[in-house]
Amino acid sequence: MDTGKPRFGAQGARVWVRACAEFRSSRLIRVAAGALMIGTLGLVAPRVTAFGQAPGPAQPIPPVIDQRFAGLQWTFARVRYNTYAGESRGGLRVGYWDEPWAIDAPAAEENLTRRLRSVTAVDVAEPVVVAIDDEKIWQYPWLYIVEPSNLLLSDKDITILREHLLRGGTLTFDDFHGPYEWDLLVKQLKNLFPDREIIEIEPPHPIYTCFYKIDKYPQIPGLGSFFQGRTWEKGGFVPHLRGILDDTGRPMVLINWNTDIGDGMEWSNAEEYPGYVKWTALAYQMMINEVIYSLTH
Question: For residues 83 and 146, what is the distance between their CA atoms, to the nearest angstrom?
């Protein structure tokens, strides 16, 4: 029975709109690759003048807009979730930005939002924070949960998230490491989807080529690991992108394990850590691919 809540697009499409009743819109996106290249190289076009006249200043070449995917909209929606720690202290919140769900915020989402605006023509809104039981969650098909080993889903959370994802939403997990934290998340996922397997998502899956070409899944070190000269932490030596599929084979849950994409995005503007730049570039590439894939499938 239809509950009146929106499905996030038709035939696996991921377009969202701001009103809950208007979730079926066009499935295209413009990629301003030409504009990016021009801006990077500083190319300009000579000014054409009449014979015998001195040419004026060079004019920038107008960007060449790729119209293949025009019309997509996206918002970074960070999920404010309940935790084991919050349960033990009766839900008392010590500090808003000290909670596990808020790690890397607000810099990570602000930086990713700016980067998506600069390299694509996606209509990118300002980032938001949303609770699972907030009615506004139906406005945001793309959800992000950081440090999910702390996640504690109530029965109500499970009902809402399951419906959200089966209607076409995407839930992205990031920044947790090692077998112990993996087992904690799996426990919650088995409550969410007891009849669905967690699968590996490896090249040549199209998520690795839908925007940037990525040869293998990257292990992004958190800043603490970077300072110690390694990319792993908590025994999480091998990075994995895993997922849970819906009935059409679409990854509706994306699990970034043994990698810290959030740190890569958060610290991308930190000039005092020049050696970290290569990791921030990989973090952006992988997360942008995950976003673009979710918007187009």
Answer: 12
Dihedral sign from CA coordinates of 101, 261, 287, 252: negative
Residue 4 backbone class (left: φ over 0; alpha: ψ -120 to 50; beta: rest)? left
Q: Residue 25 in contact with residue 17, Cβ under 8 Å?
A: yes
Number of other residues whose CB lies within 10 A of the CB of residue 294: 24
- Yes or no: say if 126 and 106 are a contact pair by the CB < 8 Å rule: no
DSSP single-letter state for residue 28: B
The residue with tokens 């119209």 is 67
Q: Write out the E strands in 123-260.
A: 123-124, 128-131, 142-146, 170-174, 199-200, 240-245, 251-257
Under 8 Å between Cβ of 43 and 61: yes
72-296 CATH, one of 3.50.50.60, 3.40.50.12280, 3.40.1790.10, 3.40.50.12140: 3.40.50.12140
pLDDT tens track for 148-202: 999 999 999 999 999 999 999 999 999 999 999 999 999 999 999 999 999 999 9
Rounded CA-CA distance 273/279 in Å is 11
Query: How many residues are listed for the chain in this entry?
Result: 297
Whole-number Å distance between alpha carbons of 172 and 243: 9
- Global confidence as pTM: 0.78
